[in-house]
Amino acid sequence: MSGETGFFTAELVVSIALIVVVLLQAKGTTASAFFTRDVGASYRTRRGIEKTLFNATIVLAVVFLLLALLHNIFFA
Q1: Which residues contact 17 (CB under 8 A, 6 or more apart)?
Q2: In 10 A of CB 17, how many CB atoms?
Q3: Which of 5, 57, 60, 75 could form a disulfide with 18 if both were Cys (CB 3.0 to 4.6 A apart)?
Q4: Distance spanning both ends of the chain, measured CA to CA
């Protein structure tokens, strides 16, 4: 496996994981919280699995960004 194929595979795996984590995170939210004045529905503390998914989303996004930048630096 060449270096470029390795980068592409890593980007693909991370992007699929990022999509899954974002979809899992958005499962419990409703759009009506943004259109109403219900402050409790839009501002609340993340706990348990919701906090883990939130942190995983940030980590995967940063990893994906770094992989994309390194891919463009080394193989563009």
Answers
A1: 60
A2: 16
A3: 60
A4: 18
